[in-house]
TrEMBL record:
Entries under Pfam families matching the protein: DNA_photolyase (PF00875), FAD_binding_7 (PF03441)
Superkingdom, taxonomy of origin: Bacteria
Protein name (record): Deoxyribodipyrimidine photo-lyase
Site residues (Electron transfer via tryptophanyl radical), renumbered to this chain: 307, 360, 383
């Protein structure tokens, strides 16, 4: 009897335990992807996600064809579609890689229940390095702070990656498949995807190419370069990991292997990179143990927080029109490319929640809609962390000063010039805070505050005091 492999956020052949297991049996395999935008509680994907998913599924279809298989596409409630396909092909087994969000797990359980009895349902660990239920504190609880989590997991070496199957047997008859185009995942009018398309190559092969180039050119200096937003110093693996086009196990071991053969790659660089991969795991750990991570304050005291609700202020932040160049550059990078540098994500996140006092859920939702890597665990966990409502509560230390951050990490303003071109001709000493420039300097650079570029939407010093007062009011 055939085996159905239900693919989700694991759109790859390499190190795909569910697929490898199915291939190893020699039995016919039906790879299946279900677009579920109907199940209550399952969060619909955002606009940038849809664009990425289209191309990722197109790439996966081709790589499956290369090993003799056809991807079956279906749209609808997964708890209905998946058992229906399993039954229609007379499959004896359903295999998939585990997911960790509450709604997704509930669907998986419903599918398993529907097939109970005559179909073997098996789930594998593929997309995070450490299973959340296996990492426990000394008292048996879960971790709420990253450093002890890291200490715990760094004692265990993640398993080795599994090579991709060379070929798959297919059943005599395949179930009907939707066409990818019929899902209309790509934007049409207006088509905003041009900037994204020129920034990204999508799919498993592209992810591997990008990672090899990162190891060759940037891994050795990753720890020094990763905070400098103007340079391409990080791996940009986040969307590939988000969609599972590349496995974290592959990244982990490839980075170590690369360092072993190249002595210019310092151990600190590798260690920093590995710690970032573990931040991702930590987010999943939190999500697994605190299901409503994306909707409810982890720290319930924040339920009383006096958030502001001015839509025009939110809109200015979304559009990159706050008058703070580093914030605006970040928000425009996000809009144009579907990605934002990590340091800038922290700056814009702090600006929204502290300077503008807008609820972190508004920021999270905007990121979810516009990021190609918008991730069910990392996005929520990082927004709560930056807002101060998260598991690791040190809100007072996380009011980022957008001017000093900009001066420190984008010293000559190259990043600002790239994404806020109307400030291009300002000298570096004032580009971080144009309102401090002499009238003649602004004039020479063709900048008219309030006309060619916004005047600052808030005064950071005053906004900081207001934020501290608001935070004190919920600290009890
Ligand atoms: P690299 O520096 O090359 O790091 C390698 C990998 O480690 C990343 O691809 C990512 O998977 C992981 N990683 C790195 N930093 C973090 C982190 N702080 N938390 C979790 N994982 C991390 N990351 C997402 O993948 N999806 C999100 O939706 C997301 N939302 C965020 C929202 C906010 C407010 C903030 C402050 C951060 C968010 N991050 C998110 C984390 C981080 O900004 C991105 O993972 C990183 O910028 C991706 O770039 P990279 O792949 O070049 O990272």
């Amino acid at each position: 009897r055939p085996i159905v492999v239900w693919l989700r956020d694991d759109l790859r052949l390499d190190d795909n335990p569910a697929l490898a297991e199915a291939a190893g049996t020699g039995r016919p395999v039906v790879p299946l992807y279900v677009l579920d935008d109907e199940t209550d509680g399952v969060r619909g994907i955002g606009g940038a996600h849809r664009w990425w998913l289209h191309h990722s599924l197109a790439a996966l279809t081709q790589s499956l064809k290369g090993i003799g298989a056809d991807l079956v596409l279906r749209r609808g409630k997964a708890a209905v579609e998946v058992p229906a396909i399993v039954r229609s092909v007379g499959a004896g087994a359903l295999l998939f890689n585990r997911r960790y969000d509450e709604a997704g797990r509930a669907v998986d359980q419903a599918v398993a229940d529907a097939l109970e009895g005559d179909v073997a349902v098996r789930a594998f660990t593929a997309n995070i390095l450490h299973r959340p239920e296996r990492v426990t504190t000394k008292t048996g609880g879960y971790y709420k702070v990253y450093t002890p989590f890291w200490k715990n997991v760094s004692e265990t070496e993640p398993r080795n990656p599994i090579d991709p199957p060379r070929s798959l047997a297919i059943p005599d008859e395949l179930p009907r498949s939707d066409t990818l185009d019929s899902w209309q995942l790509r934007p049409t009018q207006p088509d905003w995807s041009g900037g994204l398309a020129s920034f990204w190559e999508i799919g498993e092969a592209a992810a591997h190419r990008r990672f090899t180039a990162f190891c060759d050119e940037r891994l050795g200096t990753y720890d020094d370069g990763r905070d400098r937003m103007a340079i391409d110093a990080t791996s940009r693996m986040s969307p590939h990991l988000r969609w599972g086009e590349i496995s974290p196990y592959r990244l982990w071991h490839a980075a170590i292997a690369r360092a072993a053969e190249d002595e210019t790659i310092r151990p600190e660089a590798i260690q920093t990179f590995r710690k970032e991969l573990v931040w991702r795991d930590f987010s999943y750990h939190l999500l697994y143990h605190f299901g409503p991570l994306g909707t409810e304050n982890f720290n319930a005291r924040f339920d009383q927080f006096p958030w502001e609700t001015d839509r025009s202020v939110l809109r200015a932040w979304q559009k990159g029109m706050t008058g703070y160049p580093i914030v605006d550059a970040g928000m425009r990078q996000l809009w144009q490319t579907g990605w934002m540098h990590n340091r800038v994500r922290m700056i814009v996140g702090s600006f929204l929640t502290k300077d503008l006092l807008i609820d972190w859920r508004e920021g999270e939702a905007w990121f979810w809609d516009t990021l190609v890597d918008g991730d069910v665990a990392s996005n929520n966990a990082q927004w709560q962390w930056i807002a101060g409502s998260g598991a690791d509560a040190q809100p007072f230390f996380r009011i980022f000063n957008p001017i000093t951050q900009s001066e420190k990490f984008d010293p000559d303003g190259a990043y600002i010039r790239q994404y806020v071109p109307e400030l291009n001709d300002l000298p570096a000493r004032v580009i971080h805070a144009p309102w401090t420039a002499a009238a003649s300097t602004l004039h020479e650079a063709g900048v008219v505050l309030g006309k060619t570029y916004p005047a600052p939407i808030v005064d950071h010093g005053k906004a900081r005091d207001r934020a501290l007062a608001a935070y004190r009011s919920v600290q009890g």
